[in-house]
Amino acid sequence: MKKIKFKIKLFLIPGKATPAPPVGSILGQYGINLKDFCFKFNELTKNIKYNLINLKIIIYIDNTYDIILGTISLSNEIKLFLNITKFSKKPGIDKISLINFDQINNLSYKRFYFEKKKISSIRKMILGTMISNGLYYE
């Protein structure tokens, strides 16, 4: 069993990692071969169609690493689901759109396959994310 040196969490565009910043400036300080990382990441994510995905990089003592791909973030999934490009800059004041409970329910069942939580907990996460970004429901 290898001993873990660092754990890093990133949000990257699938299939488009380059050694330039932000990837190079974040991972370069940990001694990772940037070209090798970008090649591995781009090969792993070449068929993913999302905007941004989260990933974890586990770096071991001998400077080897593992890439663990996550899912799309909840806020980006809400944007895709509702066809919104930006959220409100003033969430308590400016309302972007009004959605109904059926849309929230559909999104929560879609998200249920990625999360290891109850449907009611996923709905609460979705509602909290929506309200904090200026979306309101009926």
UniProtKB/TrEMBL annotation:
In terms of InterPro entries, this protein maps to: Ribosomal_uL11, Ribosomal_uL11_N, Ribosomal_uL11_N_sf
Instruction: Write out the function statement from the record.
Output: Forms part of the ribosomal stalk which helps the ribosome interact with GTP-bound translation factors.
- Put simply, this protein is called Large ribosomal subunit protein uL11
Protein source organism: Candidatus Carsonella ruddii CE isolate Thao2000
Please provide the record's keywords in A-Z order: Methylation, Ribonucleoprotein, Ribosomal protein, RNA-binding, rRNA-binding
Domain of life of the source: Bacteria
Q: Which residues form the Large ribosomal subunit protein uL11 N-terminal domain?
A: 8-65
Looking up CDD domains in the UniProt record yields: Ribosomal_L11
| Gene (UniProt) | rplK
